[in-house]
Amino acid sequence: MSVTEDRPNVSRDPATNQMVERAQDEGIPTVFDRYKSQQPQCKFGTTGVCCRLCHMGPCRITTKAPQGICGANADTIVARNLLREIAAGTAAHSDHGRMLVRTLKLVANGAGGAYRIADPLRLREVARAFEVETEGRDDLALAGALADFFMTQFAWSEETNVTLTMAPEKRQALWEKLDIAPHGIDSAVVELMHRTHMGVDHDYKHLIMGGLKCSLADGWVGSLIATAVSDILFGTPKPIRSRVNLGVLSETKVNIIVHGHEPTLSEMLAVASSEPEMVAYAKEKGAAGINIAGICCTANEVLMRHGFPIAGNFLQQELAILTGAVEMMIVDVQCVMPSLPEVMKCFHTRLVSTSEIAQTFDAEQITFEAAHGLEHARNLIRAAIDNFANRDKARVQIPQESMELVAGFSNETIFHMLGGRFRSTFRPLNDAIIDGRIRGVVGIVGCNNPKVSSDNAHVTLTQELIKRNVLVLQTGCAAIACAKAGLLTPEAALAQAGDSLREVCEAVGIPPVLHMGSCVDNSRILLAATNVLLEGGLGEDLSDLPVAGAAPEWMSEKAVAIGHYFVASGLYVVLGHPLYVAGSENVDRLLTEEMEGITGGKFAWEPDPVAAADLIMAHIEGKRDALNINQKKERKLYDMKERRELV
Ligand code: NFS
Ligand code: SF4
User: Fold this and answer.
1) Which atom of ligand 1 is nearest to the CA of 556?
2) Fewer CB near the last or first residue (10 Å), C or N of the chain?
3) Which CATH architecture has domain 409-626?
4) CA of 477 to the centre of ligand 1 (A)
5) CATH T-level assignment (fold) for domain 74-234
6) Measured from the CB, is residue 458 less than 6 Å from ligand 1?
7) Beta carbon of 69 within 6 Å of any ligand 2 atom
8) Residue 441, CA atoms < 13 Å, CB-side half-sphere
């Protein structure tokens, strides 16, 4: 059966719907078809009560069989499964961070080929933040020392992770008290794998607290390192204009798509694609030039720093190939669908996998080495140009949708923008929150998921929140979704923002929806919240702030880790669909209720984006009440009868 028969809009984005229709017309299966063939999805899986952690099993919990063969009950099984997701998510973000640290070290040793320290100021700032000696060290020596320091954060150590010191002091003290401060990224992941092995940790509360510890090693350590090193090597993002959606693909140029998460090779593709010899070669082969566009977070990385256009988010990866206009798709790690080669076969597109840990059947493989990055990039671009001749012009069908956007909001940039020309500070933002012109700040992050009409929840939630005078920070595929809907053009977003939010944004010169980067850059959201707190007037800990996080269409284990480090940081997190925990009332209650008394943060599940906005507003107003900053606005005017009753 066709996908769209009973689900006419797989997406709120017309470009996506157009390409899905094409796929159906031509009988090319996509993620949306496979989603259908997987229905109904297994209840044991979605409620988290299927255990295959040992080979006495697999075991499934039912009313008739309330325990697995070993005696594990639903609470233990649900908690263990959740922990393994957190471990995988943490591993993915952090291994990405480690690759970047390795590149930084190579650059420091003079073995980094064309890579260099793009942002020496940020290098010094980051080194100072972690007390790495800067005096008497030139940039390369300092980069080497910083890379060595970052490497120490992966292994186990007696000390807790040093980068946790970026968090507010009260928060750090709470983590110590709860014994959830990690002692190393790799060891935190290993510890979860150990604790969830058959016959180890069985108390669901103890397990979940272990999960929070590992998630902190993601957000405040691995991801934070990935962001810092990306800024040092490739430049700290500044506001930059670009375009988004499948319409950025060119009828006349050689289209190369970069997809995945690691920005290292794509940085060199950015350099090589503008070299005059490359452009001349493309022209020689009959193309008008070279067009590099991105998908997923690699896209966000090259957008933030070079303004390269974005072809789409997670669910558009197959659809980009379906335009018939892509000469080459270059993938690295994470969120790359194994179905890509199948779609490729129907077109002339070449698929190249570039990570030594990620091979895809039927894709060409190159093993990327930083020292030869520029050479790899030139070779790939040349091969893509050669493939232009194979494009079947009659089969090219590029949707017309392409939207303008502004991205590039690092903390450093927001700091400078808010402070104006003379003094960098978050003060104007804090003042606006305190006097209520901005009610609060919400991070909207995460993926797309074929379970829901793609982009719709991201866009609706964002519109609802800015309308209610909430400043929105975004990363990942959520940011791409809103960009496609025009919400990342300051003009359009301002027009949809509530009056007081609009006034503040216009006065200080920031848009109401700020694109902060890729998913590892959620660490920027943690630091933004910390900056607001340190600026003063809004409490003593992150859990005091009128802020929240949301992932309305999430799908990946990385999102599970992110959700947990937000909650462990004291934040309220609304997910568009629940974690796989419904099989354990105890785990569900711990995460959605009791956790508030432990970390100050908690989860909520809410599929309807308007209802999610209501939940978030109730939370924000509750925090504002607790901070006593709602007083002025809510001063009550008593009528005579009420006055009399008062005396
Ligand atoms: Ni985040 Fe970015 Fe997108 Fe989800 Fe995948 S690309 S790391 S995991 S799908 S937002
Ligand atoms: Fe079954 Fe226990 Fe083995 Fe899990 S660990 S598969 S519940 S016997």
Assistant:
1) 8
2) C
3) 3-Layer(aba) Sandwich (3.40)
4) 6
5) Substrate Binding Domain Of Dnak; Chain:A; Domain 2 (1.20.1270)
6) no
7) yes
8) 25
Q: What is the three-class DSSP state of 79?
A: helix
**Where, residue-wise, is CATH 1.20.1270.30 in the chain?**
74-234
Task: Say how far apart CA 462 and CA 460 lie, in whole Å.
Answer: 5
CA 72/CA 412 separation, integer angstroms: 49
Residue burial 358-397, b: 16+ Cβ < 10 Å; e: rest:
bebeebeebebebbbbbebbbebbbbbbebbeebeeeeee
pTM of the model: 0.95
Using CA atoms, how far residue 224 sits from 301, 412, 526, in Å, is 15, 14, 9
> Is 198 near ligand 2, meaning CB less than 6 Å away?
yes
Q: Please work out whether the CB of residue 70 comes within 6 Å of at least one atom of ligand 2.
A: yes
Query: Which pLDDT tens digit goes with each residue over 374-419?
Result: 999 999 999 999 999 999 999 999 999 999 999 999 998 888 888 7
Asked if pLDDT for residue 647 goes beyond 50, the answer is no
Of ligand 1's listed atoms, the one at least distance from the Cα of 335 is 5
Residue intervals in the chain for CATH 3.40.50.2030: 248-295+314-395, 409-626
Q: Rounded to an integer, what is the distance from CA 226 to the centroid of its chain?
A: 12
Ligand 1 contact, 432 CB (< 6 A): no
Ligand 2 centroid to Cα of residue 51, in Å, is 6
Beta bridge partners of 353: 331, 365
CATH of 248-295+314-395, one of 3.30.1490.190, 3.40.50.2030, 3.40.50.12780, 3.40.190.10: 3.40.50.2030
**Residue 67 pLDDT greater than 60, yes or no:** yes
